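ok trying this again, last paste got cut off
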Amino acid sequence: MKRKFLNIISLMLTSIFFSGIMVSCNYSKPSQEKEDKRVVKLNYTDWTESVAITMMAATVLEEKMGYRVELKLTDVKSAYQEVANQQADFFPDAWLPYTQNQYFEQHINKIDTIGIVFRNPKTGLVVPDYSKYISITDLTGDTIPIVGIDAGAGIMTSADKALKHYKLNNRLITGSDDQMTFQMADSIKRRREIVVTGWEPHWIFSRHDVRFLEDPDNIFPTDEHIYVVGNKKSIEEHPHATEFFRRMQLTDKQFNSLIDQVKMATDPQNGIHQWIEKNKFVVNKWVKDLQPERLKVM
């Protein structure tokens, strides 16, 4: 009986021993994301800086970090809503805490900020350098229309507030980034007066002599930043992508050159690759230790 009992114990220990080996063979590092998790969905708008930063991030995620990236062009309201519903994982062009705050606050229980892409962007009303207008208040009694972008943009909300605050009768025209920049370039060519809703960083500031109108009562927001926001579940599911977005910060020079190269290139992807090559030291710091093993070997 005693021998039988010892045999049973021996078999149990052997089973546990071999079971442990089997588990250890299937073990993977906790920091290594599973392959089925290496797909991320990014939302972006048709604004110049949004296209540039999102395309650059997607290229780095795919070529340097082994992700498959799905991109979706949408309006800013939908960008936040879809990230909140996990139809998208990240939105890399969140102007907070003022310009897009209404959308962020609606979904604050489901989304969170990850990192600051760019510090202290500026918004306001923009005119050619030769314009007779110096301040927003100079538009008083004038009926020149203000050429805007899409209705859901935070800058349009700010522009509407400015018109009411300064008691102006100018009509705010809804359009798009492309329409706004075309109108500005065409007016400069003909040396005509024009007022548009503008923001920096934007390629128009490097391509034309333009300036912001003074905003005496600071109706347009100051002291805000461009953030990456993500769905809270996505942040947990994609720790490597999240860390990349936390590290991805651009200086004025880097951001302006990125926007300009994307806009100037016949194929925007070529512009992205040229920018990455020129800034490879910075990009390599962003992705350090975040690449899957097969990419590190390669």
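PB: full thing came through this time. The longest strand covers residues 111-119.
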